[in-house]
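Dear Dr. K.,

Following up on our conversation at the group meeting, I've run the structure prediction for Citrate synthase from Deinococcus carri. I'm pasting the input sequence below exactly as I used it, so you can double-check it against your construct before we proceed with anything downstream. Let me know if the numbering doesn't match what you have in your notebook.
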Amino acid sequence: MTNTANIAKGLEGVLFTETKLTFINGAEGILTHLGIPIQEWAEKSSFEELSLALLDGELPTAEELARFDADLKANRAVPQQLLDVIAAMPRGIHPMQALRTAASYLGLLDPQAEDTSEEGRRAISIRLIAQFATIIAAINRAQEGQDIIAPRMDLTHAGNFLYMLTGKEPTGEQARLFDIALVLHADHGMNASTFTAIATASTLSDMYSCMTSAIGALKGPLHGGANEAVMDMLDEVGTPEQAEAYITKKLDNKEKIMGVGHRVYKYFDPRSRVLRDYAEHVANKEGKSNYYQILETIEKIVVDRMGAKGIYPNVDFYSGTVYSDLGIKKEYFTPIFALARVSGWCASVIEYTRDNRLLRPDALYTGKTDQHYVPLKDRA
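The predicted structure tokens came back this morning:
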């Protein structure tokens, strides 16, 4: 039997649906949401506004945004049963394990969980966007043996998360910096976790199953864990003076450099350019310039040696230093990715299921043919 079908490894270049949410031109380093460049979203908007724009596919009015913000705030609290589960989780587990379990358990407590109508999915999406922040902060507090902090209604989504995480109200600059980081991570086309959420949704499964599936995909180090690995690399380098020798040796040995290269971008990831500026600002202001100086050196050498091959820093390259300067431990970098990306996951599920078709790809069979069953007693 001969099959001459072309196999797209990793589904690269395969189109399976249409979207009006996010456009990426990897060759030129362009990322837009609803046609608006990511740089403008980061500079002029907020995570709340981008989340609503993605859910509805258009820029909201001031009244619509105010109503959405009020809905998010009203849904920040999570059921006490879930907090009890989080408090009882084993110590020392990775927070992505905890988030995966918490998201699934949250679905058990929502009487509307099985509503897969567009209106039902949208209502659940609002709760998920609001409650992911509360859940992740609660996981951190519980794992540290600290009391879980209830959300406040007078803070922004970003500011409230930092407050629940640390117990201290962040400065306006800290809250805005974290808000920008959430904006940059809110959606990014058909990445592995978004595709996984859509694949689950295509079976007409519920939103909580879709989000749990997406969390499982994001948990992998080839997707959501890269910014944590960047911080490990910086600690391994040690000082700015050692950066050049370290990275040169890595490149000479053809070893992978964390936070460098991207499946889509063959030029600078535009999100990395935004974060680089903020990382530099924070480093200079707080006197924490070591990490930034190491990254600056690594970037220069990588671009000089690998730029011609389309290998440049991606969003993970600088995001970890920004989170670190906000007092966030590296184990929580990937959950924070989920805290932002839940907006894109929900929006993509809603968009896809408007004209749903069950995802059911084929695989090229390369096994034996014309075989027959051999009784167990006759097998060698």
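Two things stood out to me. The chain has two domains: 22-222+330-353, 226-325. The longest strand covers residues 22-25.

Best regards,
J.T.
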